[in-house]
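CATEGORY: protein folding

GOAL: derive structure tokens
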Amino acid sequence: MRKLVLCEKPSVARDLARALGVPTQGNGAFVGDSLIITWCIGHLVELEEPSAYAAAWRRWSWDGLPMIPDEFRLRPIKGTSRQWQVVREQLRRRDVSAVINACDAGREGELIFRFCYDLAGCKLPIERLWISSLTTQAIKRGFAELRPGRAYDALAAAARCRAESDWLVGLNATRAVTLWRGGKTLLSLGRVQTPTLAMLVAREREIQRFVPRDYFEVEAQLDAGGGAAPFVARFEHASKRRFAAAAPAEQVVARDRAASPPWVESIEEKPVREPPPLLFDLGSLQRTCNRRFGWSAQETLSLAQSLYERHKLLTYPRTDSRYLSHDLVPLLGKTFAALGACSDYSGFCATLLDGKVGAPRRIFQDHKVTDHHAIIPTPVEHTPERLAALSSSERRLLDMVVRRFLGAFFPDAEFRETKAVIRVDASAASTLGAAPAPAPEPGKPPDDEYLLAAPPPPDRYLARGRVRVRAGWQEVAGFVEPPSERSQSESARSSREGEDDEGQDDDKEREKSQTLPPLAVGLRLGLGPKGGFRVVAKQTRPPPRYTEASLLAGMEGAGKQLSDDALRRAMKDHGLGTPATRAAIIETLLDRGYVTRRAKLLVPTELGLELVGTLPMPGLSSPELTGQWEARLAQLADGHGSGSAFMSDIAAYVRELIAAVRAAPAPPPLSAAPPSPYGAQRAGASRASSAAARPGARARKPGPRTSTAGTRRAKTPRDADRAAAPPRRTAVSADRPAAAPAARRTRAKATDAPKAPKTPKAPKTPKTRKKPVAAAAPPPSPPPPALATLPAPGTPVEPPLLCPRCQKARLLWGRRAWGCANFRTCPLTIPYERDGRPLSQADLRLVCQQPR
């Protein structure tokens, strides 16, 4: 009897087959003597749409709400129905004794397997493969340590409850709010999507309400002599350095210029140690790549997934852990040796291999490793040939992970921080005739943050500096120059490279990172070339808009301000979404017209602002809802609690939600409404602007500096349900990295769509004979709308794709089609348009996945 192995992707199936000696030939499955390996192409099965449960749910009307099925049903996804037939056939084979769940080790992978298993009606015993790497050694070790499937029943129950609760809240809230707003605009809502949008809206409201305030600082450029570079010190009094007006600041400058030379009153030096940063999880990797390279979260995930699946150079990337377990210690020597094959790391690896490699307690913490450990390089040799097969982006991402991993075994970076107080003995007589301090406005409390008048002399200036004494891990990370020899921005970045702090004050970073000359108490200082003392006019700034890096950090830490301790603990571990879904949530907000990109910034549109501002049930946009759900889902995954009780509470919440929305007073019409879920176009809207606001529409994958715009509208209520449904994990494989799933075509007619009045026909005119005229040549067809801006012909597709015909050369962009780089021997071409519909890169990857 054979065993059936079900994994998520064809690439994983090929890796398993090669490691286990199964022939890698077959139409949708690889059949060996003892094993049969097949795959899901990501998702094959999904929850049924509302129309499959009741006729009343086909129409978008209040009579059909709330939609709460007695029992949820499953159905195959039409786009992958061919592979589903293969999987179902294999699950029903009589010569199979057990089925091995080899889907990704996590909640989502468990759900994918259980949906297929249940819909096929399979009753075979289940075994579980749980691995984080696709190297041959890891695969063989995982198959030698298969676990019983029942050990993961609790995880599967939590995954199913999460999917069903998202269905209930997402679809019911979407229909209710859409109908409440008049039924002409599809307004998609979701458990994670809407609180994430609310974060962006709240920040935008802060910016809109912000009133800038002018303030002034006094700065001194001083010279210690001896050929040392000048340094900067700033006036400070009672821990305040900002003047509310220019006059008192100018008064300080005038008296200090007339005073005797400044001198060093006190010096405080202290050693500072910076430990190596924690290893990458998916969230920190996405944030770092967005800050450093401008990559979107989805782009980073796709590159990491390619390095994991195709090149076998990284461990499983969809992890939320930044730690390692001690069972990886025996593999460290082999990993260092593999990395040492690359000249960039050979020196560091030799140092680690020469000494006794330990397990730093900072990163080896078994209790902090959940489903997967941190993202680290695999023990695969980094030969020049293997690295040459990587794209430039893959190479940069791999280099970051390798350096972060190696740096974790090096000592702390050591610095000497200096704080010097510079005294100026200005004359007290210079304060005579000074303007009195302005009185606070009536009814307004005194301003304790600003200096309202020049304080009495003597004046004191504060100079800070930092000198690196020992590079430690920073040498591995690439920060080899001392701060004085590199730019201030690079110095600031290196000092916080391992952490995720956002919005650091640039002035403080520059002040802290400057290198001070040798100073001694009592040393007289000269004035710098710019006259020594000067007033610097500044203005307060509003809080910065979110980038993808800061939004990912905000989603991960959402709920920290909650008052309920239990909810706060739940949100601390989970946040909004999961590492695998946060990128998809951001892309969904862009696709549905709620958010737009401005360079690296994410800005809510008018539609997003109005949607959050008028929600009749504010809990929908609060992270508290997610905190409650994640706390209970975590308990379910640990084997505590009841799934049926959880779903009963969700159903009660949905009923309360529908009642609250229905009872709320009707709001004014939206000012920037995208097309109706039933296909009605806005009058006078241009094609481009309507495409940019289409909720649920498909979009070409945005680059780091491009805006996302939808391309198709929902034509029927069924399409609208699909658009409003909770998004599946966008990157169901590395072969589908970019865009949200396209709305499927349907010929069904909207039963409740308003019919447009018929246009009267023009009166017929008498026919006249005309000389035949040669037909004009049709104009050349423009490129597909989704690919309007094409790379130059001959540009390789990124992330790389192998030609599905010859399986040897990469695919290239052409004028009208993708083609094989080895075009002299392989004539393959894949047109940019099929059946009148433009293909996206996600479609291209699906084509390349199909077994041939």
Summary: Confidence is low (pLDDT under 50) at residues 481-504, 673-713, 730-788. The domain at 163-208+547-724 is CATH 1.10.460.10 (Topoisomerase I; domain 2). The chain has five domains: 2-145, 163-208+547-724, 214-275+413-431+448-539, 282-407, 785-849.
